[in-house]
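User: Is it possible to get a 3D structure for a protein together with its bound compound? The compound here is zinc ion. I've pasted both below.
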Amino acid sequence: MSELIISASILSADMGCLAKESAAVLQAGADSLHIDVMDNHFVPNLTFGPLVCSALRKHLSKTFLDVHLMVNPVDHLINGFAAAGADQISFHPEASTDVVKNLKQIRHLGCKAGLAINPQTSLNCLDNLWEHLDSLLMMSVNPGFAEQHFIPEVLNKISSAKQLISTHKPTIRLGVDGGVKKNNIAQIAKAGADTFILGSGIFNTEDYTVTLSELRSELNL
Ligand code: DX5
Ligand code: ZN
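Assistant: Yes, that's possible. Here is the predicted structure of the complex:
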């Protein structure tokens, strides 16, 4: 089984001290940071541009920065976030007119390439894309906001995605994003996920170190 990764979504951090919050959550045991980029067009919310990513990169030279683009179009911002120090960039296939071109663009810029799959989006959209993918991000809420409830029907979809990955390209990482908490993370892992993105499930808790160790113990890490 591949290594399990817990990634902290900075969307729920205290924005007034983002670098401090990011350092604290990594110190507490988060493996990477997840940067939710929203454009008030693809989703009805507005968050971070490449400027924030490059500012974090200056503070955190070794941290894996996972950028989740919820924007349309994606082309220009892929360049911007790659230049800003992203390690991985995922986008939603609905936001691209040429998914293969954009996946190749991400890799060409030296980043890992991922696709984010909304709860209503069929896994059929992945046909013929496997060779271009390093990761899949299964959305377990409708994208746009933190603190939503995990949609339980997505569990079966995670299992289906895991089976497809095993068949087509076992090295692809399978992330789950939205409503992940310590009371469901074990079930999500059992369904086949290996990467867990948590915003409010970490940042809205009192003690990040305690929370991360509880999450790790749920995962038997
Ligand atoms: C939703 C974002 C998620 C979200 C996770 O559009 O992609 O990353 O911030 O937040 P929680 O863990 O609070 O659901
Ligand atoms: Zn996200």
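The longest strand covers residues 32-38. The two ends are 12 Å apart (CA to CA).
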